[in-house]
């Protein structure tokens, strides 16, 4: 559905690349996560794919269409929800969506239905100028579904939203995926990525360091631990021991045979830990 090969981009038109030799493919119906710290090149890559930035070097195809020849057909089939909302403050929520829907030459969704989906029904007929930051973000998210996009570009769709709204947004993304929508999601949030993405790419300094499913990355790079709580006399003690380190394994046997175990459970490495292991720094 999306294919990118050897993509480079320089804002200064020199060798100072914001994106360097980036290649990946996204299949139909897949949720693909682009994970990286601020300034890694995530937005730059997305902007090239949606035609907001020119393709300088490399190749890109969206729905088998060459992005060099970015056309109206491409605009009609994608949905874009980016972090900085560009919304008409003097128009209501419904009016903003209705206005936006005029730009497409494909059937569009009922604005009110979309606003209801994201919990904005009560604000639907109020001016967007009075919306909070989170409401504007939901409005942009709703707007990005107006043309029933086949391919959906989401940039930090849940950042700054409360847990309830986050869960609603995640539910909508999963539902759309089940209906066959392909999702290209960029985020700093490892939990969202772990929960939603079929595959993720780790990107830093414009380069991709790993691409795989969260599960495979964990199997490949993750170390499992066992978390043991045991009693020594009246004191409850706790140890976290590696399941791969020989000394730790011996210690696990020792604790099992010589102490009274209260609780014992395995602890899988998180995607965040894997990121630090591969990239060498935290995702911030
Ligand atoms: N319009 C611009 N002009 C010049 N440099 C830019 C421009 N936009 C981005 N950059 C630079 O390109 C690099 C990649 O930025 P990009 O916005 O793609 O990163 P990002 O991973 O999306 O970051 P964030 O998570 O903060 O949005 C950074 O070094 C950034 O400073």
From TrEMBL:
Domain annotation ABC transporter: ranges: 2-230
GO molecular function: ATP binding; ATP hydrolysis activity
InterPro entries in the cross-refs: AAA+_ATPase, ABC_transporter-like_ATP-bd, ABC_transporter-like_CS, ABC_transporter_ATP-binding, P-loop_NTPase
PROSITE patterns hit by this protein: ABC_TRANSPORTER_1 (PS00211), ABC_TRANSPORTER_2 (PS50893)
Entry superkingdom: Bacteria
Pfam families from the UniProt entry: ABC_tran
Name this protein carries in UniProt: ATP-binding protein
Keywords: ATP-binding, Nucleotide-binding, Transport
PANTHER family noted in UniProt: ABC TRANSPORTER ATP-BINDING PROTEIN, ABC TRANSPORTER, ATP-BINDING PROTEIN
Annotated source species: Geosporobacter ferrireducens
SMART domains in alphabetical order: AAA
